[in-house]
Write a structure and sequence with these properties.
By secondary structure, this protein is of the alpha+beta class. Helix content is about 20%, strand content about 30%. Strands 44, 45, 48, 49, 51, 53, 56, 58, 59 and 62 form a 10-stranded antiparallel β-sheet that branches. Strands 69-66-71-72-74-75 form a 6-stranded antiparallel β-sheet, with no helix packed on it.
Length: about 1500
């Protein structure tokens, strides 16, 4: 008789377990503590700790969870092995059932570390045959303790009395059927596949189980190297599993797939078939593991290991191994999120000495690698750069596969990734608590909620759920659960009760990831007074309601429903919950503060103009950062030789995912990535710093002690080049194989042995096989450049050439980072900024000199040197100087380009309300100023420049950048640290450079031809340091003035938009200083337009601005006195002598410029800049520039020629205005005479003569006579095919000043006259036709041949014997042609051109008059009467000649002007003499000739035309 045991546990009245056959104890005691049992002790709370290697995919849905709860409430499927538990749903309702309690304790899982090697030759070996060894006797007493031993658990067993259960026949049949599927635990699993798989070939793998058990489990297939996840299948044994198949002949099933087993443990079983391909020769075992679905750490069967040996392909000479670094372990997948910028770097190992490969294909697959999710791309190397929001997100885990053919062998590398999105930052307008006026509509706004995982901030990617609860008003239908799914809800008036409190809760989840849920609450208090909604908006360092003590917190006050302006802001903070005292933070709209307390309770109080006030409350908690530990292995080693592993797995944070930054404090960055484990070479150091940062950039630092010793050389006395080659023994091979980090670590280890640029070039050339892509690689290149500069100082042009190559590569990386919007972490940005400022400081120190022949020909300083005739100009030209300057220019340009991109990246980090980021090193000052205000005044941190940005300019820049926040990147460089010092100066100079760039989080202001600003930027440069400099004292000019008539002149060239400053160093008496352009001043200008300088004005400057092109500038120094003519005549020369005056002055040129990087003639240009000054003492120079970029205030002294002259009075003095009045009167007189003559009709007549030659006699044409003669038209048709026509032809003739005549040739289409190659004659009436005339042809299409080709038409005047030939030569297709002219017309046997137009008359008259312009022939010549047309009489021609002479004399008088002392001085100063200048004479003659032509044209055209109309 069998004993039945029924144990019922009291758990809220629910029956949990029933045991219906005690015989199960013979094979194993399974109780509630079993890993498969759903029974849990109600008195003991056991927390399940999951390992970090959990790979479980969250397959649970809502239906499955309900099914799990239903199963837990029924029978235990493992213990109830004799019954169909689904038929016993109501069994636990029996009131007669006695309730007992099973006490359980849980111990270590012993099967977790058990390994079982399953071979065909060996049978499975278990540790014990009986799972319950100490339960020999089982009685019906329910109180007897039974000690059971199970490999997983130690359980105290209790047996209850048997209950009588009636079983139906159907139940018994189901029980028998289920017994065939049930199995003993632990389960038994085997795997089968070929023992020697071929490299890269696809093979089938069989996993077999004689029974599937009763609990939902997971089958996991992997390899021993933990870098290949073969397959994983979830099985629910209660129903028929779709993944598993059943076979009664296992051997035949295996043979069908090419597997021939020697010995099988069973013939009938369940089997699961999958496929796998092995791309590594170090795979030794395939591992099968079965674990519980609810707890993956609990094994339900012993791990099975199947030994394999991967064979090399027959065609392969070696076996390459292609894999990923740090993400190939499926137990530790790479955590990423949508904003992650991931750099995947694969590498090649194996026994191949020299590798060759083609393109690499990158694809995303599901975890089983059965479905390709997305094709990423194809690269020429082993590096894949994925920008943000580009990683395919599907489920929880996915696989990135890289496929490439290496040495003719197809290889595959796998990287396992896990998507870890950040939390949603839920925000409700009004913050935590507020009062609301129940008499009005109430708005609850959650639209400020931020989803950090989305590329674009949109509410469509989020799901909102509003709920409400109230203790005072529970029955309010407007306060309930699941009120609305809109981000903003509006409550009607009077729906809330006065004095009641309502807790509204907003729950937000991502639509793509519904399991990520965040909640925020707001407490409303109903009042009956007017209220406003004040909101505290987070600007920086306050996301998720936490803050980092490392940075400042920025909060902003908002009020959307305030109808009046806010007159008062008060920010209060309480640093502890127990502290009742508050501290006032700010009284402005924005509060910026810095604290380190655990909790900050912030209260904002605002007051309107009407005294209405409101408050808002905001609570911040301190973000402690990730928590965990790091290790480094080994603890000691040799640089560039030992591979160190840094392991930081296990860090936990509430704001994931994490990223890791590995740094050597004494040198710089090692790497920055999302890999918690990193392997690389190290340089000599004793400490490693690891920064573990969360998604909101709160970092935790861990310092690891390590002993990295220097590289040991075989020959301690080896030369530097030999030492470098010893360290770089395999760098090129490392780069080619994908170990770029190890290669640059070796390069850094070799840098201390460099002595010159050639040594450094060997190091850098070894790294150029692979292009860098990411910000960490950019940092490492910058660090390499820093080390080069440290060991090569002072730099020459060869060193700069190498550094410029690195800067060029860095600028390319910057361009990629900016274009793909890669996120640069704050620590990386600060490090890059510090290194670039260091570069600018080092490259700004002049280390090479340029000789004077490098002076540019159009440079003002060069012209000064030419004038003073310095001996250096005669030195030979050195071509090497061009090479040097070119290398410095290229290096400076690429460094400047990197600085520009650095400002773009800074625009994404800077906040307009936090303190300006600034740094200073040497003579370089760097600062980032972001603003939202309407104007900006910034003083550089070195106090060299003061920048003023107007409201209009800010508005223009905001429009160009399309953003309200404008970030100004400002770099100030003093002269001794000027990045552009290599620009060839002929003289010592000071150049204070100010680089200004404008950026925004969206765009940046690019400098191109269209970058000119409508509103200028104004900056002021302090030049007091230059004034106090003593190195320019040698350039001071000195002289002594003895006589009053003695004038000292300084002549120099002044560039456009430059300013000349004459600085008075010292003077012994009063002097006059005059500065002007183009010529020397006259004696009158020396008195009236000069500055009086006294000995008390030492240090004062006299300024001169040049707004013209490059011109001569003259500085004149004379003694005090009057230099006009009367005073000079009244005072004898001997009385003009006084005591000598000695003066010292320095000539300076000040110019505001911006640097143009042109291919030809790069340098400073003043195109978009103007220069002004503040006051005469010259403490600063004002610059107004209509562009941004590299600006400068250039100051350099001038050495110029010094001349001394004495003023002498002139004897001859004439007045030009007398001649002018005389000739104007003469002209007026002639015009009056001409007018009188015309009016009296004495000298002007109208006569039209027409000469007609007819049969040798001259006839006069009578217009009133009867017209009898006709015009003969000769029409010649072309000889082309179809040239004739059947259409009617219209002939139009138009003579000058006559109406148009039209004649039509009407044809019969059956008998046309205008045939091909024919000549037709036609007589027409004369009418108004005169020769010459104009011709036009028209056609009326008709008949078979509508088109006509006309060759010529001749018009013949039969009476006057004239004819005119028109060469047509065209097809007349349709419509009417334009009137055509012809110059082929004759009179008898001679050509005739009539003289009846004013232009013909003027041309003839011009040709005749130009022969003897001022002689008598043009007046009295007989040829005047034979011109034809209108003619002039003798009086008329005389008036024209006198008018021409008067105009000519007047023009000459006006040109020479007044002949006085001043004019003579000006002429002498300008030309050096008073003699006749032939160039002026010929010029005046030419202009006089043009004026006379104009007068002649006036008489010929206007006067004669007017006369012809009048008379």
């Amino acid at each position: 008789m069998t004993t039945s045991l029924i144990v019922i546990l009291a758990n809220e009245g629910t029956q949990l377990m029933s045991l219906l056959d005690g015989s199960f104890l013979a094979n194993g005691n399974w109780t509630a503590a079993s890993p498969l049992s759903k029974l849990k002790d109600t008195n003991t709370s056991l927390k399940v700790v999951h390992e970090k290697s959990d790979l479980g995919i969250l397959h649970k849905t809502k239906a499955e969870e309900e099914e799990m709860r239903r199963v837990q409430a029924l029978w235990d499927p493992v213990l109830n092995q004799s019954h169909e538990f689904s038929m016993l749903e109501d069994f636990g309702n029996d009131k007669q059932t006695r309730q007992k309690v099973i006490k359980q304790t849980r111990f270590k899982n012993l099967l977790a570390n058990g390994k079982y090697l399953n071979n065909f030759e060996e049978k499975p070996r278990f540790r014990s045959n009986s799972l319950c060894q100490n339960c020999d006797k089982i009685t019906t007493t329910a109180t007897e303790d039974i000690n059971c031993t199970f490999p997983n658990l130690n359980i105290r067993c209790y047996e209850a009395g048997r209950s009588n259960i009636k079983k139906s026949r159907t139940q018994l049949e189901r029980i028998k059927k289920y017994q065939r599927r049930s199995a003993e635990y632990p389960l038994e699993v085997h795997i089968f596949l070929t023992r020697r798989p071929l490299f890269g070939k696809l093979y089938s793998i069989f996993a077999t189980m004689p029974a599937l058990g009763n609990e939902k489990f997971v089958l996991n297939l992997t390899v021993d190297t933990k870098d290949y996840f073969i397959d994983e299948v979830v099985t629910k044994p209660g129903a028929h599993p779709k993944e598993w198949q059943y076979t009664n002949n296992l051997a035949r099933t295996l043979r069908m797939r090419g597997l021939i087993p020697k010995q099988l443990p069973y013939t009938s079983c369940y089997f699961y078939r999958t496929r796998a391909s092995f791309f590594k020769s170090d795979h030794k075992y395939v591992i099968a593991r079965i674990s519980s679905f609810s707890d993956r750490s609990k094994l339900l069967a012993t791990e099975v290991h199947w030994k394999i040996a991967v064979r090399k392909p027959p065609e392969a000479a070696c076996m390459p191994i292609f894999s990923f670094r740090f993400c190939d372990d499926p137990d530790y997948p790479l955590a990423y999120w949508s904003k992650s910028h991931i750099l995947f770097m694969a590498f090649v190992t194996g026994d191949c000495g020299n590798i060759r490969y083609g393109q690499t294909r990158w694809d995303f697959y599901d975890l089983r690698e059965k479905i390709r999710l997305k094709h990423v791309g194809v690269t020429d190397h082993f590096v894949l750069r994925l920008p943000p929001y580009s990683v395919f997100k599907s489920g929880v885990l996915l696989v990135l596969r890289a496929c490439v053919i290496i040495n003719d062998v197809p290889t595959v590398a796998r990287c396992y990734l896990r998507y870890t999105p950040p939390k949603v930052d839920v925000r409700i307008v009004g913050n935590e608590w507020r009062k609301v006026d129940v008499r009005r509509k109430i708005i609850l706004d959650g639209s400020q909620t931020r989803d950090l995982a989305s590329a674009i901030e949109t509410l469509d990617s989020q799901k909102f759920v509003w709920s409400c609860r109230s203790k005072d008003d529970r029955r309010n239908r407007y306060c309930r659960s699941n009120m609305s799914d809109n981000p903003v809800i509006r409550l009607p008036e009077n729906v809330l009760r006065i004095g009641s409190q309502y807790m509204f809760t907003l729950t937000v989840s991502q639509r793509k990831d519904p399991h990520l849920i965040q909640t925020a609450s707001q407490l409303l208090l109903g009042v009956s007074t007017n209220t406003i909604t004040v909101n505290i908006r987070c600007l920086g360092n306050c996301a998720y309601g936490v803050y980092s003590p490392d940075e400042s917190v920025q909060l902003k006050a908002e009020c959307q429903d305030c109808s009046q302006p806010i007159v008062r802001y008060e920010w209060w903070v309480r640093t502890s919950e127990n502290d009742s005292e508050e501290t006032l933070l700010s009284k402005t709209k924005v509060a910026v503060f810095h604290y380190e307390y655990e909790t900050l309770s912030i209260r904002l109080k605002v007051e309107l103009k009407s005294n209405l006030s409101a408050e808002a409350f905001y609570t911040l908690r301190r973000n402690e950062g990730p928590n965990g530990s790091c290790t480094v292995s080994p603890s000691s080693g040799i640089e560039a030789v030992t591979t160190f592993e840094i392991n930081c797995r296990g860090f936990e944070t509430a704001y994931g995912p994490l990223y890791y930054r590995y740094v050597i404090p004494s040198i710089g960055i090692i790497a920055q990535s999302q890999y918690a484990r990193y392997e690389t070479y190290l340089t000599e150091t004793e400490e490693i710093a690891v920064f573990i940062c969360d998604a909101i950039d709160k970092c935790t630092t861990r310092f690891l002690g390590v002993d990295v010793r220097p590289f040991q050389f075989k020959n301690p006395k080896a030369k530097p080049k030999q030492r470098i080659k010893a360290i770089l023994r395999n760098v090129k091979d490392l780069v080619k194989r994908g170990f770029w980090d190890n290669a640059i670590s070796q390069s850094l280890a070799a840098v201390p042995h460099t002595k010159r640029a050639n040594d450094a070039s060997i190091i850098y050339d070894s790294l150029t096989e692979q292009e860098a892509f990411s910000v960490p690689q950019l940092e490492r290149l910058a660090m390499l450049a820093t080390q080069f500069v440290n060991y090569l100082i002072p730099l020459d042009y060869e060193d700069v050439r190498l550094v410029g190559r690195i800067f060029k590569q860095m600028s390319r990386i910057f361009a990629v980072v900016v274009s793909q919007r890669e996120e640069v972490k704050p620590e990386a940005y600060r490090t890059l900024t510090a290194m670039h400022i260091y570069f600018m400081s080092i490259l700004g120190m002049p280390s090479e000199t340029h000789s004077v022949p490098m002076c540019m020909p159009n440079h003002a300083g060069c012209l000064h040197l030419e004038r003073v005739r310095l001996a250096q100009l005669n030195s030979e030209f050195d071509p090497l100087i061009l090479v040097k300057i070119n290398q410095w220019m290229m290096t400076s340009w690429y460094l400047y380009k990197c600085i520009y991109f650095l400002g773009i990246l800074g625009g994404r980090h800077q906040n307009p309300y936090e303190e300006a980021f600034s740094a200073r090193q040497g003579g370089i000052s760097y600062q980032m100023n972001m603003t939202r205000e309407n104007d900006l005044i910034v003083r550089t941190i070195d106090n060299s420049h003061l920048l003023k940005v107007s409201t209009e300019l800010l508005h223009e820049i905001r429009k160009k950048l399309n953003h309200e926040d404008v970030l100004f990147q400002i770099i100030s460089q003093r002269s001794h640290h000027n990045l552009f010092w290599w620009y060839p100066y002929p003289m010592p100079a000071e150049t204070n450079v100010l680089i200004v760039h404008a950026h925004s989080p969206n765009r940046f202001f690019w400098l191109d031809n269209k970058s000119r600003l409508d509103n200028p930027v104004v900056y002021r440069t302090d030049i007091t340091r230059f004034s106090q400099s003593e190195k320019y004292n040698a350039l001071t000019s000195s002289a002594t003035i003895v006589h009053r008539s003695e004038v000292h002149y300084y002549d120099l060239m002044l560039d456009t938009k430059a300013m000349l400053a004459v600085r008075i160093v010292n003077c012994s008496g009063p002097i006059h200083v005059n500065v002007r352009l183009h010529r020397r001043p006259t004696s009158g200008e020396l008195v009236n337009n000069s500055c009086l300088v006294t000995p008390a004005m030492r240090g004062k400057r006299v300024w001169l601005a040049n707004w013209c092109d490059r011109s001569d500038a003259f500085v004149s120094i004379c003694r005090q006195g009057d230099y006009n003519e009367n005073a000079r005549r009244a005072m004898p020369m001997e009385k003009q002598e006084l005591l000598p005056v000695k003066f010292y002055l320095l000539l300076e040129i000040h110019q505001c410029s911006h640097f143009k990087n042109r291919s030809e003639g790069p340098g400073w240009s003043a195109d978009n800049c103007n220069t002004t000054f503040e006051h005469s003492y010259g403490t600063s120079v004002h610059c107004i520039c209509h562009t941004l970029g590299p600006l400068a205030t250039r100051i350099f002294p001038i050495i110029t020629r010094h001349d001394v002259e004495f003023l002498r009075p002139l004897v001859l003095s004439t007045e030009w205005w007398l001649f002018f009045i005389l000739f104007m009167l003469l002209l007026l007189l002639l015009l009056v005479v001409l007018w009188t003559y015309i009016s009296s009709n004495v000298s002007v007549g109208k006569m039209l003569l027409t000469f007609v030659e007819c049969e040798g006699r001259r006839l006069k044409w009578d217009p009133h006579r009867e017209i009898k003669e006709e015009i003969l038209l000769v029409i010649v048709t072309g000889g082309q095919e179809f040239a004739g026509t059947t259409s009617n032809i219209n002939i139009y003739l138009k003579s000058p000043r006559q109406p148009q005549s039209m004649f039509q040739v009407i044809q019969d289409p059956g008998h046309p006259r205008l045939l091909r190659n024919t000549t037709n004659k036609m007589q027409v009436p004369r009418g108004n036709i005169t020769i010459p005339t104009r011709l036009a042809l028209g056609i009326e299409r008709n008949g078979r041949y509508p088109s006509w080709y006309c060759r010529t038409i001749t018009v013949i005047d039969l009476e006057l014997k004239r004819h005119q030939l028109f060469v047509v030569e065209r097809w007349i297709v349709q419509g009417q042609t334009q009137l055509m002219r012809s110059k082929y017309f004759t009179r008898g046997g001679q050509q005739f051109i009539p003289q009846y137009t004013w232009w013909k008359r003027f041309r003839n008259r011009f040709e005749q008059l130009s022969i003897s312009w001022y002689c008598e022939n043009p007046i009295t010549g007989p040829w005047q009467t034979s011109v034809g047309g209108w003619t002039f009489s003798l009086i008329e021609r005389t008036a024209v000649l006198i008018s021409k002479v008067a105009i000519t004399v007047t023009l000459v008088s006006v040109f020479y002007g007044r002949n006085t002392v001043e004019s003579a001085e000006k002429e002498k100063l300008s030309f050096g003499s008073l003699y006749i200048h032939w160039d002026q004479l010929f010029g005046l003659s030419f202009f006089s000739f043009l004026c006379v032509c104009a007068v002649h044209l006036f008489f010929e055209y206007f006067v004669m035309r007017w006369l012809s109309v009048r008379f």
